Write a sequence for this structure.
């Protein structure tokens, strides 16, 4: 462990506060982005099936994303902040600059990727970015390569593969059960009408689960940057993350909900219920063990599960290739941008 | 829309609405063909010609739908039915309108001078073909519900009940067809060319009903072959 105490003296005490404030600001942008796109995608299924109006969705999504973030977002935040890079053994200044580089780089990548409609995940970006920060501090001899928690990273990557699979299996079983026990026996129109109401519950469940997991992509680096305040994640950080997501939904996410919802009318209430329930359960479980997963990718896995159970007219499996490509692209790109940004900040400040 | 990441890509192209539209066009074309025959009997050759054009453009539209489906049903699509079964079914269904168009052209080749003795059973045949295609459409109408119930046993049962009915109607068409052939070959009408053409027309008319029956069978294979 080679934390550079002279760095602290050289830069003075004010700088760390400025860096921390900047990190919170960029983190807020990240939270907004999560609300605008990822939260919106998760909620669009309930809009597409007509279970909820746009206004109702925005209210439910904002409130429950916020609740999920504040009440259940701590574990994943902890994993992103401290799980990959052992920040407690680093100088808080280095950590603050590293966290700012990571959140800035992930935000830049997400913004560019979104512009080009790439199916990238904010989770993968921020994890890649934190790894980039870790490698950059190794290159400057603040850490040795073995200090980076590769075991945690390995588990995170495993969770990225397992979460869509788990969503798919759960959705397959759930829809098969619904088909055999309900759809085969009752009038399909009546069944769908009942599931329309049940889908209000799964929409809440989905928003809560999504908030609990994805908020960490914004609050993880914020927590790391604020490490000089103490070891605990301050609850107000989760508040900021939750509010950022809620504002993201209200200011931009509603358009995404509308656009996506209109395209996925195929997902009737019984199918939407299955996909949402499977996704929310998988994501909430991941939150409970502190694993940062992609809700969007889990939802894609769940939709494929419903398709495999014969519930959909057509599912395009080529998206699986695109998702794998986006993993392989996002992690190195986010890590690379972070290393460049971090190095520049250290050299020029 | 810029600045949107979405999950919509997981939903692939669904061919079922297009398949249904294609089946509807087949039914509409047969209806037009009956009108064309009536115009032929009435000696209204201009109307025969204009209906020929209408049927021709309907066949063209059906062809476009066929290509739309064939071009979009890629191997990466996960559908509740087998892809090959679906394409085979489409191919057979397309022959319904192909044969209809063929007859529409043949009617426009020349003016007919033969008397009502032939036309009466001919119209009977046409009405029976229409009945066959109507029943066929009732079969295809189940497609939407099959998807909605994700192919429930009851819906499959209700659907395939139509297949033997289509086949029975096709058999009745055959009988009328034989009767017309007899009349044609025993006719003392002066124009042999006209008789040959009429004979060809009757053969092709039979093909329309045949195609409907084979298509009903292919549809059944498709939904049972899951």
């Amino acid at each position: 462990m080679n934390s550079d105490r002279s760095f602290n003296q050289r830069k003075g005490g004010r700088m760390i506060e400025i860096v921390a404030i900047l990190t919170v600001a960029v983190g807020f942008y990240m939270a907004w982005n999560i609300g605008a796109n990822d939260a919106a995608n998760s909620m669009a299924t309930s809009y597409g099936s007509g279970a909820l109006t746009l206004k109702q969705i925005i209210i439910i999504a904002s409130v429950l994303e916020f609740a999920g973030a504040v009440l259940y977002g701590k574990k994943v935040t902890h994993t992103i902040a401290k799980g990959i890079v052992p920040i407690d053994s680093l100088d808080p200044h280095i950590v603050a600059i590293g966290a700012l580089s990571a959140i800035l780089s992930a935000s830049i990548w997400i913004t560019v990727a979104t512009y080009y409609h790439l199916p990238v995940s904010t989770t993968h970006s921020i994890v890649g970015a934190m790894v980039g920060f870790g490698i950059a501090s190794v290159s400057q001899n603040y850490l040795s390569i073995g200090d980076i928690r590769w075991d945690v990273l390995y588990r995170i990557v495993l969770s990225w593969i397992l979460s869509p699979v788990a969503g798919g299996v759960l959705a397959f079983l759930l829809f098969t059960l619904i088909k055999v026990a309900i759809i085969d026996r009752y009038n399909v129109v009546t069944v769908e009408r009942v599931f329309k109401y049940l889908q209000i519950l799964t929409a809440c469940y989905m928003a809560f689960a999504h908030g609990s997991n994805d908020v960490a992509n914004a609050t993880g680096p914020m927590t790391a940057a604020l490490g000089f305040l103490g070891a605990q994640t301050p609850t107000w950080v989760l508040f900021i993350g939750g509010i950022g997501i809620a504002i993201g939904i209200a200011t931009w996410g509603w358009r995404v909900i509308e656009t996506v919802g209109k395209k996925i009318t195929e997902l009737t209430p019984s199918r939407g219920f299955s996909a949402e329930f499977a996704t929310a359960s998988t994501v909430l479980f991941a939150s409970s063990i502190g694993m940062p997963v992609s809700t969007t990718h889990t939802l894609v896995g769940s939709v494929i599960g419903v398709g495999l159970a014969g519930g959909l007219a057509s599912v395009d499996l080529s998206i699986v290739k695109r998702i794998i490509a986006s993993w392989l692209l996002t992690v190195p790109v986010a890590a690379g941008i972070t290393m460049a940004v971090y190095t520049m900040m250290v050299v020029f400040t | 829309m810029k600045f949107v990441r979405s999950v919509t890509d997981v939903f692939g192209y669904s061919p079922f609405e297009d398949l249904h539209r294609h089946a509807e066009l087949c039914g509409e074309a047969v209806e037009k063909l009956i009108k064309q025959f009536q115009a032929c009997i009435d000696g209204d050759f201009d109307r025969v010609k204009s209906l020929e054009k209408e049927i021709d453009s309907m066949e063209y539209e059906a062809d476009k739908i066929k290509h739309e489906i064939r071009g979009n049903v890629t191997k990466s699509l996960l559908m509740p039915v087998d892809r090959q079964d679906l394409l085979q079914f489409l191919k057979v269904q397309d022959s319904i309108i192909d044969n209809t168009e063929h007859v529409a052209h043949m009617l426009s080749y020349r003016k007919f001078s033969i008397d009502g003795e032939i036309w009466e059973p001919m119209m009977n045949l046409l009405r029976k073909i229409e009945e066959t295609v109507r029943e066929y459409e009732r079969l295809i109408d189940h497609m939407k519900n099959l998807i909605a119930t994700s192919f429930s046993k009851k819906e499959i049962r209700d659907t395939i009940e139509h297949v033997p009915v289509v086949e029975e109607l096709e058999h009745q068409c055959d009988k009328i067809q034989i009767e017309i052939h007899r009349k044609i070959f025993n006719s003392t009408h002066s124009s042999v060319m006209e008789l040959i053409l009429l004979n060809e027309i009757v053969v092709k008319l039979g093909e329309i009903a045949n195609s409907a029956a084979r298509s009903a069978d292919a549809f059944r294979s498709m939904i049972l072959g899951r």
Summary: The longest strand of chain B covers residues 77-78.
